[in-house]
């Protein structure tokens, strides 16, 4: 019997590893009431954020996706090969999925595949009527030209985003409740802000901030924080914002680093 030298085995294993694509960690958006597909938002690989098409090229069909709400893991699912999302967003990519349980709510949920825990810290929901947060939103809107904004805060979430021991507060406000209007009225707005304390001082970082000082033909947005997940394994939580207008939907992902929030992924259909 002839034995293959150990060095040749190691070289062969190294060559096989080099020829295999590095793992990718994809993010899907699951629309309420749609249980057959997930929209491919993008992913993370080799220390980079990837758009949907580059993410799709690295998928091998073996990933197991964990479905998350803001505070809980809800289900586990598999997804099949990506395909066109079809009309009206044929340029987007969807993955065929089978959701094993009924998913709650009327807002999009997010599914993510990675070997680490994507939800290491859970946000605490605070009262949307708290004067401090309403005043912060009012000041932000006045700085954008709304002299007397009608403040409607819908979400206030407290969580340590960057695992530094200090709690951030995420504030979401929309001028309109319910279905978005087809045309913007004067005073319409939608915004997501992060309140931080740095060296004893409070500052407000705007993630999404749409303000209509005057009426116009543009369709105004509604926004909501859909999930807070660690999408790159560094222990920090990315902020996943779901948005919609009368003509479309979208998702933005923001990452906190160096005291700044950066938009790292953006997906949209009709918006």
UniProtKB/TrEMBL annotation:
UniProt keyword annotations, A-Z: Signal
Q: Which domain of life is it from?
A: Bacteria
Which organism is this entry from? Deinobacterium chartae
Q: Where in the sequence is the signal peptide annotated?
A: 1-17
Q: Does the keyword Signal apply?
A: yes
Q: What is this protein called?
A: VCBS repeat-containing protein
């Amino acid at each position: 019997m002839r034995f293959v030298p150990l060095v040749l085995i190691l070289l062969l294993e190294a060559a096989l590893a080099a020829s295999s694509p590095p793992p990718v960690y994809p993010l899907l958006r699951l629309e309420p009431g749609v249980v057959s597909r997930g929209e491919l938002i993008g992913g993370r690989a080799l220390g980079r954020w990837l758009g949907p098409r580059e993410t799709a090229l690295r998928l091998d069909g073996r990933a197991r996706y964990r479905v998350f709400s803001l505070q809980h893991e809800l289900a586990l699912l598999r997804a099949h090969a990506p395909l066109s999302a079809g009309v009206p967003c044929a340029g987007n990519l969807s993955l065929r999925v089978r959701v094993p349980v009924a998913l709650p709510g009327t807002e999009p949920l997010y599914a993510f595949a990675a070997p680490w825990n994507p939800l290491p810290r859970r946000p605490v929901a605070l009262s949307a009527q708290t004067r401090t947060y309403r005043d912060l939103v009012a000041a932000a809107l006045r700085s954008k030209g709304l002299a007397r904004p009608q403040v409607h805060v819908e979400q206030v979430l407290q969580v340590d985003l960057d695992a530094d021991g200090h709690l951030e507060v995420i504030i979401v406000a929309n001028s309109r409740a319910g279905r978005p209007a087809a045309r913007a009225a004067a005073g319409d707005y939608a915004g997501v802000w992060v309140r931080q304390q740095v060296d004893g001082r409070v500052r407000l970082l705007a993630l999404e901030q749409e303000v209509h000082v005057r009426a116009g033909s543009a369709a105004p947005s509604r926004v909501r924080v859909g999930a807070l997940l660690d999408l790159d394994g560094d222990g920090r939580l990315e902020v996943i914002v779901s948005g919609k207008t009368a003509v479309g939907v979208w998702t933005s992902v923001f990452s906190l680093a160096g005291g700044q929030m950066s938009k790292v992924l953006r997906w949209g259909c009709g918006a």
